[in-house]
User: Fold this.
Amino acid sequence: MFTIILYVLAAGLLTISFLKDRKKTKIALKKAWKSFENILPQLLSILIIIGIMLALLTPETISKLIGQQSGWFGMLIAGVVGSVTLIPGFVAFPLAAALLNGGAGFMQIAVFISTLMMVGIVTITLEIKYFGKKAAIVRNGLAFVFSFAVAIVIGVVLA
Amino acid sequence: MKNFMKRYRLFIGLAVINILLIAVFPDIGLKSVNITWSNTLEMLSVIPPIFILLGLLDVWVQRDTMIRLMGEKSGIVGALIAFLLGSAAAGPLYAAFPVAGVLLKKGSKFSNVLVFIGAWSTTKIPLLLFETSSMGWRFTLVRFLINIPGIALIAYTTEKLLNKNEKALIYEKAGTMD
Assistant:
């Protein structure tokens, strides 16, 4: 749905841009392509890494890793698994719901979801390209720690 | 050609690993190829409008305008714009970095760009809808509410920890990335 909105928005603005200034529009499209081509090598690598990783780390394996474990150790494992994997939201949330039903705690699931979204070990080379090493490492590190704060709040509120 | 090999060597190496994987552990190797393929298709379906919007942003939005909206002196309004921009996005986090690059190039404050990244990563509206349907509205709401200060905290702390030179280098790099 949102992808469709984005397409409509992009097409609409592109048309307006074209009517206003053809030359600028051409430059814009060239820039769009160049920015894409610029990250393409990393992007392709990321896609293969995710493929291999998810072939090894199946939902069943992830369930085993964070399903049975509880307490701080379980949270730590959930955080590490969440940081190194990159799963699209429409796969991740049903998986998280299934893990909850399978006996995992709210806090472990909250750490898993938060790190999954905010911490990206696989994408860090790409992030470094734009933000530099230090900023990228600091941002990911803080996001990792913050994920535990989220989990504690969720544990307190929903318990 | 030499440049091409250099840029794509990691990808080529990984592709070789995957092929070896198919030879040694066929089910894992083939499964990996399947996942990679479906992720690639997904990427190709979400990414084009993001990059077209990025191109239009780069060409049409003047540096002055961007500095006024999201620059050093944009204050809370700048952070709010960054937050809304990131939340309205669709698509994986890796697509956010090139957009962040353009925002930096046009003179956005670094912490605002980090707020944008934070929002894109975790408070995206399409993602919240998914989250509500599988985790329930209470879980989603609590996470959303704590994420707002969290995103700001991460953004400002990260900016504070960088010195002037490091920041200047980031902007310089963004300026040359065309």
